[in-house]
Amino acid sequence: MIILERNRRAHVMIGSANATDAAWSGNTEFMVEVIGSVKELGINAALAQTEGGLRSILYEYSDIDDITPDEPKLQEQLEWALVDLAAQAFTTEATPDGDSWQQLVRGTEPVLDSFVGDAKLTVRLLSGSTAHSPNPGDAIQEIWKGLSAEDLTPFVVLELTAGSVASPVRATCVVMATLSGGPEDRIDRLIAKQVGSPEAFLRFLMLLLQLGKGDLFDPGSILPGQNPSTFGAFGIGSAGVLESLVTALADQPQSIDEIDRLVTRLSATAEGKNHLPPGWDAMWSQVLIARETLRSSQ
After folding, report:
1. 16 close to 29: Cβ distance less than 8 angstroms
2. 74-183 CATH pick, 2.60.40, 3.40.630, 1.10.1060, 3.90.320
3. Model-level pTM greater than 0.70?
């Protein structure tokens, strides 16, 4: 509220306008002007103790010392520094290295010479535990060797660590780099690595077959912890695997191709074969015959 007195008249303006950059240049501000006698609406009337004055609810303004905010904690400072690090673009390149792979991770911005609390920066692949320390003043450029195809990943972990060895303070984040190179079947290899038992294989199989069925699909039926007996004879929950495969042949044959890539990957090793349910090969061969018959008829 602003009160102005002029020529024995009082102008009372009430609204949202205020002396800020946003008010002057950006916001839409609105005020109402009331004009009356100085005796009724003037400054003294507004500040009076009685007759509707505001004195009883107002406090005299007095300047106070500047209040300096508390210094941010070390944890917060590390997190802020990490945000700046993670904002840059990262690329990563996978190349063959004999019987294994190597992966190079690059950043675009130089690493600071020092961080708050003398924190140290480390970089590692999300799929591994080996961490490297980039050179201060240079852009991140680190390489990991002796990797399997399943270890290749676009996800990179950045971590700042400060404090003592006994009670370190850490800030960690994961950034997604642009991955180039690597085997074409990297995703298939990665999925096969996660399939560690016939039960896990059937859960993943049913997930592929049931996706897109909306309310007809109960995700809880394929979660770990289900009664193992439900996986016998290719049964899971109330829907048998064979029934779901036959339905997929008609409705979503591309899912059969996706499953076959996984089966081929698992069948390539003795360990992987052990993750297929007993009797799977005999049934799957007939599914593939049906798939090829349908494909040739289209």
Report:
1. yes
2. 2.60.40
3. no
